[in-house]
Amino acid sequence: MSDTITRKYKGDDHVITQNDDGQFEYDGNVYKSLTAVAQKITGQKAISGPRFFNQSEAKGAGRGKRKATPKQLVKGCGVILDSLVVKLNAIDDAALKAKVGSKIIERINTEIGTEEGDDALSALDG
Prior knowledge:
This protein is of the alpha+beta class. The protein has helices spanning about 35-40, 50, 70-90, 95-110, 115-125, and strands at about 5-10, 10-20, 25, 30. Helices cover about 50% and strands about 15% of the residues.
């Protein structure tokens, strides 16, 4: 059974067929990956085929990165927070430092939907 992927790019519809063997047919040619097809269509070498075709779980595309575990996510957030604290503490102007800190907390609250900004702000001041 073959799957068909369609993508409009620069006004043209591009139809790609994924065969049962995981290869992709486009414009009479066979490609091993969606990335190779996307590169052919766009002429760009640094392009992600699954992202270009909006196919995060396409056959043959599973060779990339795996999702992070909750423990890895927490560790990554700690690294990001540490970096923000260093950058925030490098600001000499107290008013600007407070404004930047508030913007960071505002963004965190927007992204995670929490109202506990004061706790996060005190972590940044540490």
